[in-house]
Design goal:
This protein has 73 residues and is an all-alpha fold. The chain has helices at 2-28, 33-47, 51-67. The protein starts with a helix and ends in a 6-residue tail after the last helix.
Length: 73
């Protein structure tokens, strides 16, 4: 069970590290669909760890993507 808990925490850390890079990518190319879909995936995965923290970010990103005509949900 400890190994599973360690893996769970390691996954969260790796997702948070990836999030830093995807946010930077978004700042460079804010309307790039591949970047936005990647960011949405990361937020969705992190939402499992901290619903309050990431729910608003997921919703804001979905609204932005819908505004760009991208398929979301």
């Amino acid at each position: 069970m400890k190994k599973r808990a360690d893996l769970y925490q390691t996954t969260k850390i790796k997702l948070e590290e990836a999030l830093v890079f995807y946010r930077k990518l978004e700042s460079l190319k804010p309307n790039e669909d591949a970047i936005l879909y990647g960011l949405l995936s990361i937020y969705g995965d992190l939402h499992v760890y901290d619903e309050k923290k990431y729910l608003s970010q997921v919703n804001q990103l979905k609204a932005k993507m819908k505004g760009l005509g991208l398929e979301v949900d």
